[in-house]
Design a protein that fits this description.
single chain, BirA Bifunctional Protein, domain 2, Rossmann fold, 3 domains, 11-stranded mixed beta sheet, 5-stranded mixed beta sheet, 15 helices
Length: 493
Amino acid sequence: MAKELKELTSRSDNYSQWYNDLVIKADLAENSAVRGCMVIKPYGYAIWEKIQAELDRMFKETGHVNAYFPMFIPKSFLSKEAEHVDGFAKECAVVTHHRLKNSPDGKGLIVDPDAKLEEELIVRPTSETIIWSTYKGWIQSYRDLPILCNQWANVVRWEMRTRLFLRTTEFLWQEGHTAHATEAEALEETKKMLEVYADFAERFMAVPVIKGVKTANERFAGALDTFCIEALMQDGKALQAGTSHFLGQNFAKAFDVTFMDKNNKLDHVWASSWGVSTRLIGALIMTHSDDNGLVLPPSLAPFQVVIVPIYKNEEQLALISEKVAEIVTKLKALGISVKFDNNDNKKPGWKFAEYELKGVPVRLAMGARDLENGTVEIARRDTLTKETVSLENIEIHINELLKEIQKNIFQKAFDHRASVTREVNSYDDFKVEIEKGGFLLCHWDGTPATEELIKEETKATIRCIPLEGDKTPGVCMVTGKPSVQRVVFARAY
């Protein structure tokens, strides 16, 4: 394990390589035999399960239910909403045949030319089209509304350049798709789910986010408005951490989904869709982790506490194990997840390094002397500090410590973001400042042409038009034309 840590590239040397090293060495994921696709390993998947469980609970608290829709979408469905198909056409994987057969030369298999599909099927890049085709059969009257469905699924978007968790050809996500009787209800739903995502990011992931609206250039294909939460990574690049889309009546019109309202008038249904994906794990890594490995918020760590015994013989181990069993029972009673690592194939020093690399929030070490003194050594992953404390009320001490760690890593991320967020007023200054990274708050004239010019010349994009904060008008840093408010620029993943 010391060798593993030694081979972990430092952030200052090469941030991108540090990230790749950490994903691999902390046993989160690895590249698969399928180009652009990843294998999420048990430890990485355990983090996703924690994310999934918390979000699923939050969705259900806001009235949503889970469903599942096909992963294959007829090509004609995508063609029905022009902007939507334009947005995804270049990323689609297409199924053209349904059968293989033995090669005539006896060497392997070939696609059976007689098994060509009448209509090609698209492997789900997102599910608006298949879901709205389905909703047509579910909705006749206002009494059938609202429909508040979510699905946990995988999607495929054909990517040329991939990076584990951040951008892979196949990834896991959730996608909510709701149907409403009025524009106001659909817009309220869109904003409500943005708040759910922001709350989850800050309370559970300990990642501070900016809530905002995407520009027309950056919004979801087929949406009237896209709301988002934007996070800032340690290298000064932004990461879109979640999106919620107000779809208007676009998909209802494309699939002729109508309903009879309370006044017996026929109208098209109003819609929203919203989603987050396994890229949230990438956000966790890049927001909190350090040159020693992962730093995980206690709320999402696969286990929050690990206990390592230090002993010379089986007799000592038996005595320590008996005391540890008491501690484990007390911790579990408070809902704290704990692992007792009594594996005798690895030395304590190796275990300490391993759990530091894997970001376990709290590590307890207990030896024979601790047993005699009624104490235990506690190591915090966030600060890398240690203390020896009494076993009396140890579960209360650890419970409070976990809360403190959660709060501390959020504050650290918040302070870092604040330190690299600044107002810029001239385009010349912008070109200098964007090289330093961070969020730049600038005036923009609201035109796609100016936005595109800035992107071409600096590789920076408008991450969002903030919903909160200073709304003072000004003049565009590029054109000098009037600007309604400052927007958030950054280079992004």
